[in-house]
């Protein structure tokens, strides 16, 4: 299709408030939404704030809501819309607005810091780790995460309930907890850290009711719910209700 004029509504404002602004803007064949936002900056709105870096779906910076759906602007082709369609671009709703399309995603960095990192196995040096290939393959999917935080934005636990942010890490970081919990060489338990208990009690795993909205918006196609959150929930429940585990934890508690 050759060039045409599209009707865009773009949210403008800051922490004090704002609203949608209308633009008629040129669109050319092969362009993505980020191209059009850049054209707006170049022609009609030079002070329009937008965060981006790679324009290749890899840095995770250009997250926004396009017609109400969390998406990467650089990976949303204009060809998915009809030329007559109004395209609305708004900032991620779950995080505080800094200006225009730029939000403060600091909540995510705070949650990242709360997940204890990998604990190296004692007595093994670099190059001495040995794992089954299937244990290598399984978390590989989670490593594709580009930290765009679209899953964090869409998750209703925090999207509609600001109060839950304190207690809830969100899908991206519960996935991190799951990845570490399934790591066969992680020595967290030897160091007195129970990752399943921590996921439940410290990071709010129980808030997730497996609606799979996070999986639906993930631009990397990571099956967050099926492959990370549900298995972690199952293991956490096993730990709580397996009779020997229960007995062991009672004995440990008494002796301490
Ligand atoms: S599956 Fe869980 S983490 Fe994902 S969006 Fe639903 S409630 Fe949130
Ligand atoms: S899991 Fe997917 S949606 Fe969530 S931050 Fe990573 S890449 Fe983005
Ligand atoms: S600009 Fe890097 S993911 Fe869009």
Automatic annotation (TrEMBL):
<dbReference type="InterPro" id="IPR025192">
    <property type="entry name" value="Succ_DH/fum_Rdtase_N"/>
</dbReference>
<keyword id="KW-0004">4Fe-4S</keyword>
<dbReference type="InterPro" id="IPR017896">
    <property type="entry name" value="4Fe4S_Fe-S-bd"/>
</dbReference>
<dbReference type="Pfam" id="PF13183">
    <property type="entry name" value="Fer4_8"/>
</dbReference>
<comment type="pathway">
    <text>Carbohydrate metabolism; tricarboxylic acid cycle.</text>
</comment>
<dbReference type="InterPro" id="IPR036010">
    <property type="entry name" value="2Fe-2S_ferredoxin-like_sf"/>
</dbReference>
<dbReference type="InterPro" id="IPR004489">
    <property type="entry name" value="Succ_DH/fum_Rdtase_Fe-S"/>
</dbReference>
<keyword id="KW-0411">Iron-sulfur</keyword>
<dbReference type="Pfam" id="PF13085">
    <property type="entry name" value="Fer2_3"/>
</dbReference>
<keyword id="KW-0479">Metal-binding</keyword>
<comment type="similarity">
    <text>Belongs to the succinate dehydrogenase/fumarate reductase iron-sulfur protein family.</text>
</comment>
<dbReference type="InterPro" id="IPR001041">
    <property type="entry name" value="2Fe-2S_ferredoxin-type"/>
</dbReference>
<dbReference type="InterPro" id="IPR006058">
    <property type="entry name" value="2Fe2S_fd_BS"/>
</dbReference>
<feature type="domain" description="2Fe-2S ferredoxin-type">
    <location>
        <begin position="6"/>
        <end position="93"/>
    </location>
</feature>
<dbReference type="InterPro" id="IPR009051">
    <property type="entry name" value="Helical_ferredxn"/>
</dbReference>
<keyword id="KW-0560">Oxidoreductase</keyword>
<keyword id="KW-0408">Iron</keyword>
<dbReference type="InterPro" id="IPR050573">
    <property type="entry name" value="SDH/FRD_Iron-Sulfur"/>
</dbReference>
<dbReference type="InterPro" id="IPR012675">
    <property type="entry name" value="Beta-grasp_dom_sf"/>
</dbReference>
<protein>
    <submittedName>
        <fullName>Succinate dehydrogenase/fumarate reductase iron-sulfur subunit</fullName>
    </submittedName>
</protein>
<keyword id="KW-0001">2Fe-2S</keyword>
